[in-house]
Amino acid sequence: MESTGFWSALGPAERAKLTEVAAVRSYGRGDVLCREGDRADSVLFLRTGFARITSVTPDGREVLIGVRGAGDVIGELAVIDRGLRSATVTALEEVEALTVPAARFTALSRKEPGIAWCLALVLAERMRALGKQWLDIGGGTIPRRVAAQLMQLAVQHGVRHGVDVEVVIPGTQAELAMTAAISRESWVRATRELRARGVISTGRRKLTIHRITELRRLAR
């Protein structure tokens, strides 16, 4: 597992204890890892691949919340508060995950301070990121909103290839536009302008940032 997030924050002993009680599961593209409204019976740790997180609004619209990659923990909130799943997690590509039964994860978190502390760090980081997302994307011009959105994806899940940064696109154009609080047409126009300026290029479910400094400037 090429670790980021929760898994990389754990020590070798904590990783070993979680692995001992975990089962390995594989998911194909489009498979649902957990569904909004279901009872939480496990916590998942992504080993490979990417998954997107979506939620349904009261008026029935599906909203993209974020994307998770290798090393990320999924489904921990519903296990902690014994509530229902607050979002649906869907594989964007082939995904392999460790699944730990809810009762085992709760017991280990209470027994092992290292696991509990790493979980607290991840939750705090996500709260900060969510607040920054609303500040960055919730205001400013349409080009700025799109640039801020792409910068967030790059920081969270970008992979460097020399001077370029490659990002897996976590949803459709309509979903990304909804997250940026703009129309799909506006999102398409903004990304077309970025392509014309050589800031980005796009491919099937992927986006490559060629001029990260310029994108950062546009996002301010």
UniProtKB/TrEMBL annotation:
Domain of life: Bacteria
Protein keywords: DNA-binding, Kinase, Transcription, Transcription regulation, Transferase
Positions of the Cyclic nucleotide-binding domain: 6-108
One GO CC annotation: cytosol
A Pfam family reported for this protein in Swiss-Prot or TrEMBL: HTH_Crp_2
Record-annotated membrane-spanning stretches: none
Domain HTH crp-type residues, every copy: 140-213
Listed GO MF terms: DNA binding; DNA-binding transcription factor activity; kinase activity
The name this protein goes by in its record: cAMP-binding domain of CRP or a regulatory subunit of cAMP-dependent protein kinases
Source organism: Amycolatopsis tolypomycina
